[in-house]
Amino acid sequence: MIKPLDRYIKLGLLTLLVGHLIAAYTSFGYHHPDEHFQILEWARYFIGMSKDASQLPWEFAAQIRPWFQPILHAVFLKSFVLLGIYNPFSAAFFFRLVYAALNIWSLIALWKYFQEKYSLSSKWFFLLSLTWFFPYIHVRTSSENLAGIFLSFALLALVKNINSFRTFFFAGLLFGFAFLARYQIALGLVGLALVLLIGDRGIRQKHWLLLLGFLVPVGLGVFLDRIGYGNWVFTPYQYFKVNLVDHVADKYNPYPWYQYFLWIAQLNPFISLPLFYGVLGFSFQNLKKNKLDLFAAFTMSFFILHCFITNKEYRFLFPLMNFAPFMAIAYFQSTESTVFSKFEAWMKKVFWVPAFFTFYILLNIVSFCVSTLHGASTQTHWAVHAVYHAFRDYPNTVWLSNRDYLEGGQQFYNLNDVADFQPHELHVYHNSDELIALKQQFPNANVLIDGNLRDPAIYGVMSVIEGSNCKVISRAFPKILSEKAKIPYQVLYHCEKG
After folding, report:
1. Euclidean distance between CA atoms 374 and 60, whole angstroms
2. Checking DSSP bridges between strand 426-428 and strand 398-401, what pairing results, if any?
3. pLDDT tens track for 130-155
4. How far is the first Cα of the chain from the last one, in angstroms, to the nearest whole number?
């Protein structure tokens, strides 16, 4: 007979696996343009599939973006090209699967550590596996995602063997790679270094080994940047100078210091507020002088210092998202008394009430469906994928679209890079008259409509389509959602002469 522990762990692992597979398949767009334009587009440019550097974002000319992550992707892209199996859609799906697998690995490693140290019930692992945002952020090809993976393993290496000199060097390597992926990791390292110095009452030899390990990837990054940019440049300094000294970052998403608190309260508050409360409770509880927990030190430093940077986006906190839930559940299961002990005891009991348990599961499932099943697709990415999946069923047709899918430097998903791709001819229309003229020229065509149904131009285009012999191939959302909400109506039709 399977023990309860085994049952919850297996259910949790199955949930993580299925959720991440779904997200990897559906999430073909991007949460933020940086994960596409500063990773995939750079990788494509690096292997020579794109020759025009002006199509890359301004960070390329400013030389503030590290080449470490784009080159990692470029190695695989070049391998696919040499093997004759390159397909931009398959390559992007492969990258999402790799990121998902690495994140699941980190979650398992984190669970083993926290479960052993805090004697966590296996029910927590199952609840954690249902966390709605895990699959969504774990398949991102973003710098935050890669940094979070390295960061999780770096902290684990340090806390599991805190007295090992070899471990300090290895942890330094991992911190260095996390820093290469995202320079803002340095904000958390400030608190981490402070706690290490306090705990050891000064600088020790192992601290120098940690620093040495950190500097190795940084040196590698300088070499990779020399290859990518074609000249010697120290991108961490360039990034600091351009964004903080020259205040370029202040032009993007300037918010007050308390904005992260507002987002936490607004973004799915029934889940985010208990999570935030648990992380705060864990941090205050474990930063006492006799504990000085490294997870708490890094998290508090990373979060607090981000509050004082003008440029704010909630994705900046993604590197914390792998281990933050473990910190929260460790706190909720703890029995240490505080000034709020009665309230907290009541809160902890609520977690196991069947009604709350059911509500939590249903809320996560609904949130997962909203965030993941449609993926992070943008209008252009949805259009390209829709045509890609339809072209084999409708060969030798052209694409009539009210959007140019290659505008704005989006070259990675170039349909001409797909073997045997037929409908390579793109004709862009802007109104119903232009669509009528194109339909007369190409009576058997795939027609893409992408826009708000309340827009007179889109309404006119719809009138043309509805009066023609056209059938729906694919749509991003049901039409009623676009009619009742401000969701763009994205639909691909196939029209035939008649």
Report:
1. 31
2. parallel
3. 999 999 999 999 999 999 999 999 99
4. 66
